Automatic annotation (TrEMBL):
Official protein name in the record: Alpha/beta hydrolase
Keywords carried by this UniProt record: Hydrolase, Signal
Domain AB hydrolase-1: 31-241
SUPFAM superfamilies documented for this protein: alpha/beta-Hydrolases (SSF53474)
Organism name: Pseudoduganella albidiflava
Any Pfam family matching the protein: Abhydrolase_6
Length: 252
């Protein structure tokens, strides 16, 4: 009888172990990268190369910046194209996009890089008006678009890049529609999803103090980088490390 009991117990433990393995969530191996205003997806190359080397499936969204709704659709399309859950990463205005798009059920976590973290009913402009950035380089066109003054671009947007690289970014910048900056988010994904925030301490395009305030409100795990607004380009190793930590934590 004792032998029978031992067999039954062993079988029960075996089934329990199998059940636990089946219930364990799969690791998050998809990363979706979303750029911000005045830039495009090519800026993510350094981060994308590191993530790809480390076994992640990377998608870089080239959203049109014609409206928040259009940019959310472009991001949602990228999420749907991958099997399994994704980590959403947004730089600058990309933080607004992932805050809305991150409500998608296949999003496991959010990473904000020198980004805006709006709550429901808030727009990028609402947040920027609370703590103004150091730069005065953002201007509007007569037909309702924004651009960054090329004369200020290196110092105020990309100070930790070589001057020639910053100059090319200034000449090739995307000019977003003003309405993308003034449209409020309808639901903030960080209220239901874990989030991480990278603060760029030398940022002149988004106030570092605003970045800290928004991250604190969202309960984000924060990391500070001594970098400009484009720290994700100048310091890809540090940014990729945070993304990988987020993927590991979200998969538990």
């Amino acid at each position: 009888m004792n032998k029978l009991n031992r067999i039954v117990t062993a079988l029960a433990l075996s089934f329990a172990a199998v059940g636990a393995q089946a219930a364990a969530p799969a690791p998050v191996k998809n990363v979706v990268l979303v750029h911000g205003f005045f830039a495009d997806g090519s800026g993510w190359k350094g981060v994308a190369d590191i993530l790809t080397r480390d076994g992640f499936n990377v998608t870089v969204v080239q959203q049109p910046e014609t409206s928040l709704a259009d940019d959310v659709k472009a991001t949602t399309r990228a999420i749907d194209a991958r099997q399994g859950d994704s980590i959403l990463v947004g730089h600058s205005y990309g933080g607004v996009v992932i805050t809305e798009a991150g409500n998608h059920p296949k999003v496991a976590g959010l990473v904000y890089v020198a980004a805006f973290l709006p709550d429901a009913g808030e727009s990028l402009k609402d947040l920027a008006d609370r703590i103004a950035p150091a730069t005065k380089g953002i201007q509007a066109t007569a037909d309702g678009h924004l651009y960054f003054d090329p004369a200020r671009f290196h110092a105020d947007f990309a100070a930790d890049l070589p001057a020639a690289d910053a100059r090319f970014m200034a000449y090739s910048q995307v000019m977003p529609a003003v309405q993308a900056a003034t449209t409020p988010v309808s639901q903030a994904a960080w209220r239901s999803k874990p989030s991480w925030a990278i603060i760029s301490t030398a940022d002149r395009t988004v106030s570092p103090e605003l970045e800290r305030t928004m991250a604190k409100r969202a309960g984000s795990k924060t990391v500070e980088i001594d970098g400009s607004h484009v720290a994700f380009i100048a310091h890809p190793e540090q940014v990729a490390r945070v993304i990988e930590q987020a993927a590991a934590a979200a998969g538990k």
